[in-house]
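Sanity check

After download, print the first record. It should look like this:
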Amino acid sequence: TWAEALARVICTSIEYGQQVREAVTSTKSARRNDDDAEDPSDGGSSKSLPSSSSSATASAPTDLLSKFKSLSKAHGTNVTATCSSLPSAMDYLVDLFLKMGGENSCAKCGSTFSIGGRAPRVGVSVALVHLLRLQTASLSLSMSVKDVVSTVLDMVGHVLEKQVMTENNDETNPKDGGAAGTGGMGGSVRELTNFHLSRGAYTVKQSEHDAGTARLLAGRVLRHGLGDAASESLQLRIFHELSSFCAPAVILVEETDGTVSISMNKKGGPNAHQLQVALGEMTHLISALESAASATCHHCLPTLRALLSHADHGVRFSTSHVLAATVSHSAVSAETGGTGGATLLLSSLANANTHKALLLSLASQPPSFVTTTTKGRFRRKAVSTTALDPVVADKLTREMSGLHGNALAVAFLLNQLAKKREVGVSTKLVEEVVLTAEKLIGVQDDDVVTGHHPLATTTCVRSGYTLISSLLTLGPTAVSCHAPLLFQLWQSSVTSFEQFDLINRLLCLESMLFSFVSFLKYCPEWLLSIPDALNRTTLLLEKLFGVLSSTGPLGRVKLEGRDARILLSVKAILMECFTWLPPGSFPIAANVLFEFAAEEIKAGTEDVVTSLLPTLVTNEDKLLGTTSLYRSDSISQSSASSLTSTLLILHHDPVDALERELNILTPSPLPRLSNVDTTPLSSPLLAIVTSYNDSIRPPPTPLHDVGGSWREPPPPSTSTRVRLLDNAILAFAVTFGLQDGHEQERAVAALERLLIPPVEATTSRFKIALPTAAAAQNTERLARRDKNCVRNVTATLLACVQALPRHESSDPEEEARRMGPPWMTKAKNLFFSFLGSTDTLIRRGAAEGLASLAQIGISEDAHTLQSSILHSLDEVMKGNHFNGGDPRRAMDHRGMAGGGGGGGAAPISLSRSASLLTLACLQRANHKLRTATKSAAMRRKQRPSHHAALSSPPTMIMMTRVLAALLRDESLTVRATALHSFGILMSYSIPEKKKVTVEGKQVLYKAVELVEREFLHTWGFYGRNGSGGSVGEAFVTEMILLAVLIRLMSYLLPRLNYVQEKDPTTVWRFCKMTSVILANCDSHPMVVLEGMAFFERLNYHQRLLKLDEQAGLRQFVYDLVARSFSGGE
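Expected structure tokens:
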């Protein structure tokens, strides 16, 4: 990359500067020696001259340096002369990072096609990463660890703080930091909202994402540039310097009674951004060092406990994360943390109770106001402002921050203790936490505190529900005796919140609903074990939904800024609660929820892209989205960690601490074990890329198993807007099957209207001539918007189809039933339109959608929807429209498929490749349906039905279609997808452990022939120059083809015993081909992963090799792993 090239140039400049300094030093030393050797009798008139060779070597660098200095004076600062040492180079890059400005103010720099915004700062940070890596690798790090840490943290120092924040003099503007309805206490009350909303006496000047982006980039420089490649001793030094950097933020104050209190250093210490970066990297170092960091953690525990009371929400959250890491990775020793950190948890719980008592004593007193009069100038009247006493406001802020921070720490520590099976959580500790949470939530009924200081009540309520959320993650057994109390608290809170003002009501509802989601995730057994629990749950959610719907009192409110984000978060969590309920358990709210979700999907489709689509498709096809590391433009196209983090920062917005708290606080649900092995190829290596959709887990309760259509919702997104869109899609899918046919058809038609062809949008916008770079960037932006819209519609349709129950038989006399309702035809047409998309994820979603449609209540018949889909696929593979007709109509809907990033492949090639993948998805969907049917029958203790065999797709016919596409000299994209589809068809039709038929043996022989043919075709001259695709397509698709080849060989390994009878050297040839691929794949992560999985799978089938071949294979694998990872990620 250009950043790496810049880092290497700077390293060269540093080396040259070092040589110049050494040459100058040697010259001065030689002159001093000559002066000492001078004869005194000559009176200083004669001096011995140095030799010509030494003079030439010493003066050459000096002359070159003088030339650089002259150029610097003539043309400004010269980078090479400035970066003559590592300290000066880092100072220069950090200064450049700060001067560039935020994403809204950064101008374009460099060539014509350079872009402004967030990209320049990302590039400078990547250059810093490579610079530190190169200096560390060459063992020439000429700076101390303390100076490196201090310089990197200057990236988020006071200069950045001045850039992103400015003084807010307008105290009456609610969207700049005020809260409506806070009891008339003015701007000082708004300062108290800092611990909730990270806003107060400051307001964002430029982009709201500048600070978060800078923190991410600074942390990345410390982690990837300095910490990753460091030894354990160096990592300990880094951890020590980071903890020492955080220490000045805390001041020990001796009170009059002799006690020592802790306060924050607001003047000379590090700012909140620096503290968040330092604490975040301390968490990563503790995870890496584990018990080796126990001594250092012991010394920094007082500072960490004090930082829990910091006024910034992000600092409190990061500090809680550090404390949780010390317990999770055994970094807290027995003398500091007791048994597994229980002492640390109890101390945090005691501190929370102390802060709560002090807060209530302050909040129960009437507020004291201070009136400030500003003298009028230029004949203007004097202005008087009334605000809360600053001393009282500071005390309230300190106590609220301390309460919230310690409650966060208790929640994090409780989750970590629950994961330690050897320690666990005692019943007494659970009771103490429940008692504290009950008292905190009970403040909602204190009218005195709520009337004087409503934010104090909000803090107590949110802290209490944070503790309950963490308690529920322990499971139903640990907290079952407290279930009646929890239901009582939830019901009382809904009523008590009605007396709060708007913002405080939303804040409290957010925390309460978050705890309710934890109950539905981790304790769903209560819906059966507790009498009337399901009814009370649905009534509570329906009541809240009536308040938040478009016709409710909170749904009609128009908010802006952070207040609007809180409202969106409440809506998102409420819809998430409905997705965790058993299907059909909320018939009263189903229709209203369906319409509400449809409105949210329509509102967020153009601006937000859903994160559901990767979880809805099977990750077995993930390797089809692989591309060259130099052509990746999304995080789904590469497995390289550094490249993924770069793309993540470039194309996604950072989230604040409140959004992170609502997601990271509660860990993912524990996996429910199943008797079905869903690990890809039985390989633990490939299992690391398996999504939740690839694993079959039984429903949590028999209520969820009714109908067999309930699916466990995926983990929520951290971003509020993305989470709202995701939950709206899931709620839409859950209620889609409860609507009648006419309503379903109307809903699918509404989704179709959301698709805007990019050609129309482009022609209507660009009516004036734009520069080349600006036109290209605007075209790319419009293409990305349209692609996001198509991705959202694809995810919505796919979620709806997957949420519908699978009927195992149908009446052959009902023509409408066999052809499916009208909405299925519309959905089928939309999925076929998406097959030509340039986005691999959209094509995979369309293929999965067509396969799922073919399994809904349809048996194999000439007039069924499944046969219609197969017929349309044949038309697409011929280059025609999927409904037949003129081949020129084949791409009528290509505009709806999203643009950009096609990699040089023709649209017809993309449609053909997606059609081949659909054939494989049909076979896989049928196999999963049979497996799920058998598993459900075993749970119900029933005999499996045999009707599913009637809907089996024609496997041999589909294999013939795939082989025909391979034999025709198609493009690399089509050949790679055809190979992958052939492997899936073979693996799901030919069993590994059962006897193979004669037809199956013929398929295996043909598969071995295909592997060898495609291997020679890829690496031969004809494969590189005579393929049907373009050079750009070959450059992008080559890695896909290599990964698919290895995957196909992995599919064949357990079945090669039938081939070995005729050709005993087949397995050894596969080993040689895999070694050649791995040696020439430029250490691409996906190809290396597939190669290691192949050898891992071969280890279970060593009987196919001879003894001498087995010994040679072991040594070969050792050398291969060392060579593959020597230069890769």
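If your output differs, re-run the checksum step. Summary of this record's structure: DSSP finds 48 helices and six strands in the chain.
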